[in-house]
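User: For my dataset I need records formatted as: sequence, then structure tokens, nothing else. Please produce one.
Assistant:
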Amino acid sequence: MQLPDNLRQLKSEKYPDVNIIDSRTTFPISELTIGGLIERPKRGFYLITPLGKQLLEQYGGKLTSEIIHKLPQFIQHQDELKQKGNLEKTEDSQSTDDSDSVEPIQTVDPIVKDYNDTVSIDLLDRIRKGTPYFFEKLVVKW
């Protein structure tokens, strides 16, 4: 992406350590991956899946989060998070408007647990999709 430096360096007023461009691209990439529209074969590389190509042709630039959230793979991922028991807590903590009365650890802890659950589900999915050689190498190394 060729962005001017002034846009690339924009920081959030509320969270000065957060780069706005990174934040705005990270969440959609995550949703596209969870929905099965793109794959991450290795760090920094993204491949569009056949489903991703189909939805790109169908919706073009009008593909929204609402459409992605209705996809079976995204729904399955949400169900797995619910089974882990952290999804409802995270949604509740994110919808709280009275942030002054909430301790920071109460806000961050459910978000961290949700992130860890998401990573564990993604890791299991990658292991399941791997070759037998990959699995053997993984087990022997660790």
